[in-house]
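ok here's Iron-sulfur cluster co-chaperone protein HscB:
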Amino acid sequence: MITLYRLRFLLTSHGFKYASKFISNGQLLNLVLLPCFASGKAVSSYRKDIHGVSHRKAVKVHLTLNSFSTVTVNRLCWKCGSSAELFFCPSCNMIQPPDDKTNYFDILKCEQTFSLDTQELQKRYVELQRAVHPDNFSQKSLKEQEYSEEQSALVNKAYRTLQKPLSRAVYMLKLRGVLLEEGTDATADPAFLLEIMEINESLAETCSQDEVSAIGRSVREKLKDLTERMNSSLNKGDLLTAKELLAQMKYFTNIEEKVIMYNESGSVSSA
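and the structure:
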């Protein structure tokens, strides 16, 4: 009866939680499994076979659960029916399908604020991709491979959106029900539109690298100022001002891209 209890303990989710401890500790493994085998030699052989693969998998799953199963979602695991987390099931360790209702900030486990720490965001992105990347599931079931591909694609999309100020602002306003319509020129400040037109003309007509560099520096300063004002407006909940700032950010971001194009090719597209 004691032997059966020990074996059940090892095979339960509680036992799996400490799998790395059992596998890496020969004496502890022998203590649990010895009564189930004819000799200690069998246990030794068993431990040798699983140490190279199972130990790494157990440790990897343990780290995955600790790192990526902290966002609770109201759904059940497709495999075992237990309460599932955002990426993995804490009970059976199966990867879960993406949750369409979860926003990008929760996916990347960061505070929903415009002034993000982009280095921390990148670190989180890399960690997530290591956990859900399809290469890790090439030998798994078709469903696990499918969910891995979907989760990986969603993590990529979330990171690309939150990485840059412009797309981050668009997304944050979208979460608040504010969309920037096409053709915002009609409601923009005429003086601002004139400024944009003059900058574009100067950039299109210049043959001077120094002038292009000067335009680039000026635009970056304006974008920095707009970014700070956007952060302040979103923190205050002033969505009307945030929407106006977003339109300006789009114009200056477009000019910045033209400066980059000029530096790379020596010419600027009129688009």
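+1. Residues 2-51 form one domain.
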